[in-house]
Amino acid sequence: MIFKTLWQNITKTKDKLADVREFSAQFNYKTNIHTRFMDFDMMGHVNNSVYFTYLEIARSKYWEEIVKWDWKKTGIVIAHAELDYILPIVMNDKIAVHVKTSRIGNTSFDLEYQIVKIKGAEEVICSKGKTVCIAVDYATNRPTAVPEAEKQKMLGFEQLAQ
């Protein structure tokens, strides 16, 4: 018996690696991530949910080192998170996460990521992702404007047009 499905009729216009190379064109921030034994599943791969922990570690370091976010005044919540898995991460892989602010709105901004394996001087992209971050006023627990000081640091560091 032969089953014909809709996806068999769809033609690809670009290959996945072309999309990855295009995506990785410009990142100004990178941090190394240390894998833990508990990150791996029975197949010896990093479990898919752990990738989001790696993104959290990287964005926290980005906010601390680059943006100098003032947590006493304004919080951040993640409204949306997405990740494309390209290659698995296995034991003994050395990995890093690149982070960049790609859009800044009134109360929200987008961060983009790529997780890479480090092989000598080369980096191999394992995944790419994005989070939508919302600035939150602690007193009201409601969205608030992205603080101007933090906004200017992101714009300057990323060379984004306002």
What is the share of helical residues? 10-25%
Poorly predicted runs: 1-7
This entry's quaternary arrangement is: single chain
- Could you report the average pLDDT, rounded to the nearest whole number? 89
DSSP strand count? 6
Q: Strand-residue fraction?
A: 35-45%
Main beta sheet: 6 strands, antiparallel
Shape: globular
Count the DSSP helices: 3
- Secondary structure class reads alpha+beta
Task: Describe the protein's architecture and organization.
With 162 residues, the chain is an alpha+beta fold. It is built from three helices and six strands. The chain has helices at residues 16-23, 50-67, 148-158; strands spanning 29-33, 74-85, 95-104, 108-119, 122-137, 142-143. Strands 1, 2, 3, 4, 5 and 6 form a six-stranded antiparallel sheet that branches. The protein is globular. The termini are far apart.
Describe this protein with a few key phrases.
alpha+beta; 23% helix; globular; disordered N terminus
Short description:
Helices cover 23% and strands 35% of the residues.
How do the strands and helices of this protein lay out in sequence?
Blueprint: H1 16-23, E1 29-33, H2 50-67, E2 74-85, E3 95-104, E4 108-119, E5 122-137, E6 142-143, H3 148-158
Antiparallel strand pairs: 1-3, 2-5, 3-4, 4-5, 5-6
